Each structure stands twice: as C-alpha cells, then as structure tokens.
C-alpha cells in the first residue's frame, strides 16, 4: 500500500527555517522513524518548491495510491491549480501543517485545498504527519475502494 508524503515550498528547509515555528528537525531526519512506525505502508516522499512539479506528482499517483499526506506550504493559501488537481484525483488526501495555521496570520486561515481533502491536521509540528498516517491506518479494515 503506497502512500505519498508530499511537501511543498520551503519545506526542504525544515530544521533550519524558523525553528520556533517549524521545529529543529529536518524531514529527511524524521522520515526513517515514520517508515518504521508504519511498516505496512510504502511511504514515498517528494518535496518541491515548484507548483508544476507538485501537480505532476499528484497526477502521477492520484489514481493508484492508497493515500496522500499533503503539506502544500504557502500554496495552501493561494493555489487554485493544486485545489483543482486534488478535486480531479480519487486517492484520498489528508492536509497537514506543522504549525497551527489558525493561530497565525489571517492569510493562513484560508485553505484552498482543504475542501478536497478528507480532513486537516495542523499544529503538531512533525507529529502532524504521523497523525495523518494513523488516519490511513485506521481506514484499512473498512476500506473498500477509493473515495468515489
Ligand atoms: C505550513 C503553513 C503555511 O502557512 C506556510 O506557508 C508553510 C508551512 C505549515 O506546515 O505549518 O510553508 O504549511
């Protein structure tokens, strides 16, 4: 069962970028831990700072993968194209954010992608990704098909 963890712009700088908000650990450092915690899933990881590359990746996996855990970074608040891509696919998507976007600037309160996701997990730093994967794990016994 393949799950894509998809990170958008500036998330390659995790660990160095505003550590008070995003934490001190890089995603590469965290990923092996996540893989060990979910041995039933094949966790693929892709990060890009480019909207088109994120779109291509969503198109590539969005009809075959079991799930997508998506932190779209700032594109969360701006990208109609990414929202349209999530509307087009049938793999379920969980939106994640490291920071609690509801407690930050007003422009971060609006997610354009949220309506095309199963739900959103925000504010638990890197643990947001683990919580999202627990959703997919809980789905396994019940799962009969994709979202439509
Ligand atoms: C973020 C929140 C976004 O508002 C911001 O632009 C990011 C990271 C988060 O994980 O908290 O780049 O998605």
Short description:
With 148 residues, the chain is α/β, with parallel strands linked by helices. It is built from five helices and five strands.
Features:
single chain, 148 residues, alpha/beta, Rossmann fold, five-stranded parallel beta sheet, 5 helices, binds 1,3,4-trihydroxy-5-OXO-cyclohexanecarboxylic acid
Structure description:
It comes from Hymenobacter elongatus. Substrate binds at residues 71, 77, 84, 98-99, 108. It is a single chain. The chain has 148 residues and is α/β, with parallel strands linked by helices. The chain has one domain: Dehydroquinase, class II (Rossmann fold), CATH 3.40.50.9100. It contains five helices and five strands. The protein has helices at residues 19-22, 27-37, 51-61, 80-88, 127-139, and strands at 2-7, 42-47, 67-71, 93-97, 119-122. The chain has a five-stranded parallel beta sheet, with helices on both faces. Helix 4 (80-88) links the parallel strand 3 (67-71) and strand 4 (93-97). Helix 3 (51-61) packs parallel to helix 4 (80-88). The protein is globular. Bound molecules: 1,3,4-trihydroxy-5-OXO-cyclohexanecarboxylic acid. 1,3,4-trihydroxy-5-OXO-cyclohexanecarboxylic acid binds at residues 10, 71, 73-74, 76, 97-99, 101, 108.
Per-chain topology:
Blueprint: E1 2-7, H1 19-22, H2 27-37, E2 42-47, H3 51-61, E3 67-71, H4 80-88, E4 93-97, E5 119-122, H5 127-139
Parallel strand pairs: 1-2, 1-3, 3-4, 4-5
Helix pairs in contact: 3-4
């Amino acid at each position: 069962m393949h799950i894509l963890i998809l990170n958008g712009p500036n998330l390659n700088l995790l660990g160095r970028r505003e550590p008070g908000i995003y934490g001190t650990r890089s995603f590469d450092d965290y990923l092996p831990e996540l893989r060990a915690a979910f041995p039933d899933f094949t966790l693929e990881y892709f990060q890009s700072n480019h909207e088109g590359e994120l779109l291509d990746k969503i198109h590539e996996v969005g009809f075959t993968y079991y799930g997508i855990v998506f932190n779209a970074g700032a594109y969360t608040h701006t990208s109609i194209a990414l929202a349209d891509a999530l509307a087009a696919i049938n793999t379920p998507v969980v939106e994640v954010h490291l920071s609690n976007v509801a407690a930050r600037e007003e422009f971060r309160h609006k997610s354009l992608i949220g309506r095309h996701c199963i739900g959103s997990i925000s504010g638990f730093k890197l643990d947001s990704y683990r919580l999202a994967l627990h959703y997919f794990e809980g789905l396994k016994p019940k799962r009969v098909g994709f979202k439509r």
